[in-house]
Fold:
Amino acid sequence: MKSADEFDNKIKNKILLNREEISSQESQTIWELFQFKFLMTNDLYNYAPFFKRIVMKVFNVCIEENIFICELRHIFGFVFDDERKAIGVKGELEIYDACVKEIWVKYPLF
Structure:
């Protein structure tokens, strides 16, 4: 490429789907195979008891792999309870807090 911008644009155009690709059969058939799986697991990940299990799994794997800094990226507002009601940011933070406390009991440093 003649410039960094030209290279960046070429890569961006290869990665991102444009309107024509989104509406084409080729793109749709690829995603048809995965879309139902994404939808099934999305609700599972956002169900509060399972969400806590996922967070604990992440923490435990980090410890097993000797990872000292764990940065979780999460979009608040999607975790729900048994009645499919959002537990809210406070409820989600309580899950994180409970997980951290459980890890400290399991692996005390002091």
Q: What stands out?
A: Residues 1-36 form one domain. The chain has a mean pLDDT of 84. DSSP finds five helices and no strands in the chain.
